[in-house]
Amino acid sequence: MINKKIAIIGLGYVGLSMAAFLGNHFKVVGVDSNKEKIRTLEKGRQYFYEPKMSYYLKRAIKNGLTFTDQITKEIVSSDFVFITVGTPIDKYGKIDLSNIKSVSTSIAKNMTNLKNNPSIIIKSTVIPGTAMHVVKPILEKNDLKESVDFDLLTNPEFLREGLAMHDTISPHSIVIGGSNNASIKKLTSLYKATYTKKQNIIETNNITAEVIKYANNAFLATKISFINSIANICQKLPGTNVDKVAEIIGMDPRIGKQFLKAGPGYGGSCFPKDVQALINFANNIGYEPILLDAVKNINTLQVNTVMNLIKQNLKNLKGKKICVLGLSFKENTDDIRESVSVKLVDLLLKQGCNVFVHDPKAMDNIQLVFKDRITYTDSLKDILVDSDCAVIMTPWQDYKNIKEKDLLTMRNPIIVDTRRILHIDNEKISYVGLGIG
Ligand code: UDX
What we know:
With 437 residues, the chain is α/β, with parallel strands linked by helices.
């Protein structure tokens, strides 16, 4: 098994985490059409912030991990070819499979006259039916047959940004969907050779694996919208705190304590896009997804809860200096995709506020969005001086450690804490926790 050759096509969070991890065990080639990314990776550098990745990446490169921007015959003749390209949604909320289709077309072109039968593995999140009805017909164009000339598997990923290496090294489960046992077994044995600990490997067909991924993300998004609804109710009930409610309901094993942290709404590259794509898909197959629509709408509206908390405490917002603390969609990442902070900054600008922002990692990314419309401050201490309100949006450790004496340098020490990470007991500071009545 150790001599197996692996190609990973698409070097985003999923692909690069896999390349960095599997590259420590096997001969791996990472492929991405973006030449600039390839040049950066060849130097052993990451092009986004992800804890622990650099360590594994450097070790994998020493072990022979290489990168290229071309899908060649050599790439396709690998034993395992993982497809980890992005699957965004288009302006109508429908999944955009163009990356999947173009990679499949390149693989098909290079798959004729191969000595081996590669396993083509779709790791990207794809709408149910994609493997069998979109990818398979493309791969079979040159008179090749699935299960004879190549295998086609669906192997969704559940990793979280900020914990991408952890989740790649210790996945809670590995789902493998395929059309026959022999092809599934090949990938199962690769994983058995990779992991020292016994893994929870679930074997199923391609379409069930595709549904599992959407169901997983949609359920987690539902939990967040649910607890955000409870937070909005608690907000109106003096004496209540959503965290206490979450803690106790989480003790019921049927509910579970994770993913019950109320906040400004979920963001990131997965939940908003996947819930939307599933809504669109359900409608197209004749089912009206009322629950998913509600999950999405609650999430879209949650930024208004944050705005209302600011308004209730500041009355007139025009000309006020507002500090937005935390711009990435969650802590330990510099990713601002679908971040609620971006929506909040937009709303504050519309109200005529003087917006100052801070984030431990995402400042470069946010500058590309707002350019000279807001003020960027690297020092947490400096940003607070003479400000009228500070809004904690992302639960970075730095914000948990904010000192009361620094808050007292504000013109109006009003703290809107959307994640309830501060515990302030000082009558000179107005502390407003989202979900605290
Ligand atoms: C998610 C899934 O967790 C992962 O399994 C999938 O592969 C990709 O999508 P990720 O987007 O990296 O991962 O972040 P996650 O930790 O799930 O958080 C998503 C969003 O939900 C963040 O904005 C986060 O702040 C928010 N969130 C999460 C809450 O508001 N409350 C919670 O209790 C949990």
